[in-house]
Design brief:
Helix content is about 45%, strand content about 15%. It has about 350 residues and is of the alpha/beta class. It has two domains: about 5-225, P-loop containing nucleotide triphosphate hydrolases (Rossmann fold, 3-Layer(aba) Sandwich), CATH 3.40.50.300; about 225-335, Magnesium chelatase subunit I, C-Terminal domain (Helicase, Ruva Protein, domain 3), CATH 1.10.8.80. It has a five-stranded parallel sheet with strand order 3-6-9-1-10. The radius of gyration is 21 Å and the shape is globular. The two termini are about 15 Å apart.
């Protein structure tokens, strides 16, 4: 469906709101700008984000700070080996007085769902999120119930080598638009963290800087950001190259192409641009593609990572650079169906 290009004031609002969200999160965590930027790009693209790293680097704190910066409903699920699917989706309770069943929704019925340590639950419980993440609805006892809009899952997990973890299957990893690596902070940022956390929890001071309605409107606007045919061909070239890469047993799926373009549109809008540039693709290729790859045995033995392979693939892929390849669109250049695109 054709989209109207977002106007300059609309782009300015998107840039301003995302900057305020970034500022709210930065009061809690310092030195995590790349992780925060990738996460915000996923939020505006109406995707889901998977945060993986060793314990104690701030995965859950980042997810909670993001949720608190938006005035919306928040659900939190602590995944454990004994967690049941009904604990995620909800359950029907029989009311003896009314002689009827009452559905009690689970924590997945929220705008922002924090799925903490998702790979500590059994595969059956992990699968309970699949329909919710992809279809944005939940089916319990034969009844399908829609989830609120916007809907975002922020999941955290520890590296699969750690004891008591269950690796997410490929189908479920593919449901996440991006995987964000938090990493250890720089010494200066860690020093600032010691100061800010000395005493009260800084999360208590995080105030909402936007609301669910504004976020939903911005998500609709981001869809109208222009991706030139050369940009789309650039994405296809990168994704196709991963499918023939000797170091990979499984390359990127067509869903990866769609989600890379959507995330790139978000990054462009956050920079108050109405069109995607190759730099947007380069910045988000690793977060969007790496977690979908399966390394070959030879690549694992050689100590290569999916991120390294994607980076090498990008370096080999010709970049559209000429002005005629990436024309800057004007407001009247694309037919409008704005009313149909709003959430």
């Amino acid at each position: 469906m054709n989209q109207t290009l977002p106007s300059d004031p609309e782009l300015a609002e998107i840039a301003d709101v995302t900057m305020r969200i970034r500022g709210a999160i930065s009061t809690v965590l310092s030195g995590l700008d790349p992780a925060i930027s990738s996460t915000l790009a996923v939020v505006l693209a109406e995707g889901h984000v998977l945060m993986e790293d060793v314990p104690g680097v701030g995965k859950t704190t980042l997810a909670r700070a993001l949720a608190k910066s938006i005035a919306c409903t928040v659900g939190r699920i602590q995944f454990t080996p004994d967690l049941l699917p009904a604990d995620v989706t909800g359950v029907s309770i029989f009311r003896a007085g009314e002689k009827d069943f009452e559905f009690r929704p689970g924590p997945v019925f929220a705008n922002v769902v924090i799925a903490d340590e998702i790979n500590r639950a059994s595969p059956k419980t992990q699968a309970a999120l699949l329909e919710a993440m992809q279809e944005r609805c939940v089916t319990v006892d034969g009844t399908t119930r829609p989830l609120p809009s916007p809907f975002l899952v922020v999941a955290t997990q520890n590296p699969v080598e750690m004891e008591g973890t269950y690796p997410l299957p490929e189908a479920q990893r593919d449901r996440f638009m991006a995987q964000v690596k938090v990493g250890y902070p720089a010494a200066v940022a860690e020093m600032a963290m010691l100061d800010s956390h000395d005493g009260d929890d800084p999360l208590d001071d995080v105030k909402p800087v936007t609301d669910a309605a504004t976020l939903a409107r911005m998500i609709a606007l981001v869809k109208g950001v222009y991706g030139a045919p050369a940009i789309k061909q650039y994405i296809v070239d990168i994704v196709t190259a991963t499918r023939g890469e000797p170091g990979l047993r499984l390359g990127a799926s067509p869903r990866a192409s769609l989600q890379l373009l959507a995330a790139a549109k978000s990054r462009a809008a956050m920079a108050a641009r109405n069109h995607v540039l190759p730099d947007d693709i380069k910045a988000l290729a690793v977060p969007v593609l790496a977690h979908r790859m399966l390394l070959s045995t030879e690549a694992r033995l050689a100590g290569r990572s999916a991120a390294q392979i994607i980076t090498e693939t990008i370096q080999r892929t010709p970049v559209p650079t000429e002005a005629r390849d990436i024309p800057i669109p004007r407001q009247s250049a694309i037919p409008s169906h704005r009313g149909a695109s709003r959430v």
